[in-house]
């Protein structure tokens, strides 16, 4: 029987399900443990100190559930807390920012990249820096004309407009992604981006792909939607390959096994879902967004900084 790695994901709510969906579809030999911090959603108006604490609690919980690698499936946490989390935990972690920035650089045609995100992510300038890092590390556009113009210093490639969208997450968490309210609010948020002439738009919050039909309806075919989740899965594939090589080099069969801990005795599961808030609401909204793929959700409670369920 082929061994399966256990990947932990956390987000403020249902948004990270967009990442979980891609992982489950593209990596059949992976199991996921998902934690949605729905009791404290949204994260977009939280301080860095709070986000680091929330991240520490989430990572600790996921490790306790057998996670061997962590996907920080939240752009706000990736922008503010991930560097600290990497220092404090000895486990591989993948965030949303750098993979998303690299994908935007790859896909832009005019070099004018836009961003919609939470206000905290926008203020952090993490994606602007991510685009600069991507270019510095050798990422180039697929478009040959833009690539040549950029390499000859004739055309810039940059994040030219970032727009905070604080009302999107509450709408999606309430199951209103495809509603007249969502369309009205989206038109207001997208107007400055349209005025800036962006040709590629990064969805800088994992909730936002649930709004993609509405966004495309407003923006039209000339603006490419960039979902960082797609790039995160590619990075996760590379990480899993590296983990497999290390295990083979050490010739230690235990390193190729599914972690035990709380996952022992549940050999048939593919994905497990936990939340800090209302599990039934998460299941209902999640199934509306993911077409009835979530069977059960367990609630965890905070006791002296630890999670219990």
UniProtKB/TrEMBL annotation:
InterPro entries: Asp/Glu/hydantoin_racemase (IPR015942), Asp/Glu_race (IPR001920), Asp/Glu_racemase_AS_1 (IPR018187), Asp/Glu_racemase_AS_2 (IPR033134), Glu_race (IPR004391)
Name listed for the protein in its UniProt record: Glutamate racemase
Role, per record: Provides the (R)-glutamate required for cell wall biosynthesis.
Pathway as given in its UniProt record: Cell wall biogenesis; peptidoglycan biosynthesis
Binding sites annotated in the UniProt record for substrate: 11-12, 43-44, 75-76, 206-207
A single GO molecular function term of this UniProt record: glutamate racemase activity
Record keywords, A-Z: Cell shape, Cell wall biogenesis/degradation, Isomerase, Peptidoglycan synthesis
Catalyzed reactions per annotation: L-glutamate = D-glutamate
GO annotation, biological process: cell wall organization; peptidoglycan biosynthetic process; regulation of cell shape
Similarity remark: Belongs to the aspartate/glutamate racemases family.
SUPFAM superfamilies with a match to the protein in the record: Aspartate/glutamate racemase
Species this protein is from: Desulfosporosinus acididurans
Active site: 74 (proton donor/acceptor), 205 (proton donor/acceptor)
Record-listed E.C. numbers: 5.1.1.3
């Amino acid at each position: 029987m082929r061994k399966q790695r256990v990947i932990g994901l956390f987000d403020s709510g249902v948004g990270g399900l967009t990442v979980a969906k891609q992982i489950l579809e593209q990596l059949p030999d992976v199991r996921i443990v998902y934690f949605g911090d729905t009791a404290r959603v949204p994260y977009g108006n939280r301080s860095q100190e709070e986000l680091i604490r929330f991240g520490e609690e989430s990572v600790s919980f996921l490790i306790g559930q057998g996670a061997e690698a962590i996907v920080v499936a939240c752009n706000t946490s990736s922008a503010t807390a991930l560097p600290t989390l990497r220092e404090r935990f000895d486990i591989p972690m993948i965030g949303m920012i750098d993979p998303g920035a690299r994908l935007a650089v790859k896909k832009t045609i005019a070099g004018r990249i836009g961003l919609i995100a939470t206000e905290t992510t926008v203020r952090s300038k993490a994606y602007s820096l991510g685009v600069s890092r991507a270019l510095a590390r050798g990422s180039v556009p697929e478009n040959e004309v833009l690539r040549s113009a950029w390499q000859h210093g004739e055309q810039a490639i940059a994040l030219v407009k970032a727009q905070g969208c604080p009302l999107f997450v509450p709408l999606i968490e309430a199951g209103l992604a495809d509603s007249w309210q969502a369309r009205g609010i989206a038109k207001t948020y997208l107007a400055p981006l349209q005025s800036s002439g962006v040709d590629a738009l990064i969805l800088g919050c994992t909730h936002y792909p649930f709004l993609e039909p509405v966004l495309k309806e407003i923006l039209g075919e000339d603006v490419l939607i960039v979902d960082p989740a797609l790039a995160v899965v590619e990075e996760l594939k590379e990480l899993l390959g590296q983990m497999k090589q290390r295990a083979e080099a050490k010739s230690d069969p235990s390193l190729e096994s599914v972690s035990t801990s709380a996952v022992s005795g549940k050999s048939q599961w593919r994905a497990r879902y936990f939340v800090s808030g209302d599990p039934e609401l998460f299941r209902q909204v999640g199934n509306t967004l993911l077409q009835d793929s979530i069977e059960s959700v367990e609630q965890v409670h905070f006791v002296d900084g630890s999670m219990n369920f």
